[in-house]
Write a structure and sequence with these properties.
This protein has helices spanning 8-28, 53-69, 82-90, 105-113, 143-150, 177-187, 208-217, 253-257, 277-287, 289-297; strands at residues 34-35, 47-51, 75-80, 96-99, 118-132, 140-142, 168-172, 203-205, 221-226, 236-237, 239-241, 264-272. The chain is α/β, with parallel strands linked by helices. Strands 1, 2, 3, 4, 5, 7, 8, 9, 10 and 12 form a ten-stranded mixed β-sheet that branches. Strands 6-11 form a two-stranded parallel sheet. β7, α6 (177-187) and β8 (203-205) form a beta-alpha-beta unit. α3 (82-90) runs parallel beside α4. The two termini are 12 Å apart.
Length: 307
């Protein structure tokens, strides 16, 4: 067994409402979890699913859709960032940790020291969009230019063909897997010897929605976000090239799937040991045709070998 249509806008709107309701439930409940409305599992408890904010909308959509498939299974979904989910897995307090980055070697070792053997399961692919205000005349950047902007070498939009205006840097907070991925693969360009860091003036946002919201209101801002969180009517997605001799490609499901967009990454769910029973069934469904259809509907990239 392998383990490793409602319109897009209306589905995103529905998920926004669902997430808001979930947060209210989280604030009122003792467990601090947002539980997809379903009956208790066979063992009388919900499957605990925590972590990546990039994945949280997908996780909520999967949990709600799976209720129809298996009404006896409850799935409690919370965000908090990849680091939060991974820490909960290491501590043995969740069944599934969502992550928008791979676990670090130090995290794997810490889990093993606690008697937990993490198992990595790829559940989707995400094209990470570089976004600016729609009024910004800049349409494209190279990876080098993005790195120079975020490390503070370029501080004015004029330096990349834009207006004579200061650049306002937006990033996810350090606990975010998206932050870690962007640091390692964009600022440091995948070079493990590169020690570049975010410029000190970078504004750290607590959520993906926080970045898109700030870009919408600030014509000088630049941010990065998972493709599924971007609304092209309110944020401009820049075409990105690996270098000045490479083609400039706009992020999309298609360009993420065929590898032409240079800032794309896998999204993961981690379990403590090989999943079995209800959890194995759930993860198998996520990687199958129905689960991957939801991936596409939310603007993420389905797995290339989805059945």
């Amino acid at each position: 067994m392998r383990l490793n249509n409602q319109s897009f806008k209306s589905l995103k709107s529905w998920l926004g409402c669902l997430l808001l309701i979930s947060v209210v439930v989280s604030g009122c409940g003792r467990s601090g979890s947002a539980v997809a409305q379903a009956a208790p599992g066979d063992d009388g408890r919900a499957i605990q699913n925590k972590g990546s904010d990039t994945l949280v909308n997908l996780a909520l959509a999967w949990a709600e859709a799976y209720r129809v498939i298996a009404p006896n299974v409850a799935i409690a979904v919370t965000g908090g960032g990849s680091g939060t989910g991974i820490a909960a897995l290491i501590n043995g307090t969740v069944d599934i940790a969502n992550a928008s980055r791979a676990m670090k070697e130090s995290e794997i070792e810490e889990a093993q020291a606690n008697g937990i053997e993490p198992v990595e399961i790829t559940v989707a692919i995400d094209a990470l969009a570089i976004i600016v205000h729609p009024s910004n005349p800049v349409d494209k950047l190279t990876i080098d230019q993005v790195s120079d902007i975020y490390t503070g070498k370029i501080t004015n939009w004029q330096g990349v063909g834009g207006n004579d205006e200061p650049i306002v840097l937006l990033s996810r907070e350090t606990n975010s897997g998206t932050h870690v991925y962007f640091l390692e693969e964009v600022l440091r360009k995948g070079d493990s010897e590169n020690k570049a860091i975010f410029a000190s003036q970078t504004l750290l946002m607590t959520s993906s929605v926080g970045i898109t919201s700030e870009v919408r209101r600030n014509p000088h801002a630049i941010g990065y976000d998972g493709l599924g969180y971007v609304d092209p009517e309110h944020e401009k997605m820049l075409a990105i090239a690996q270098d000045e001799n490479s083609p400039y490609v706009v992020p999309s499901v298609a360009s993420g799937a065929d590898g032409s967009y240079p800032i794309a990454r896998a999204l993961y769910m981690y379990t403590a040991g090989q999943p079995t029973g209800l959890i194995a069934d759930y993860l198998g469904w996520i990687q199958g045709e129905e689960g991957q259809q939801i991936v596409a509907e939310l603007g993420f990239v389905p797995l290339p070998d989805a059945d």
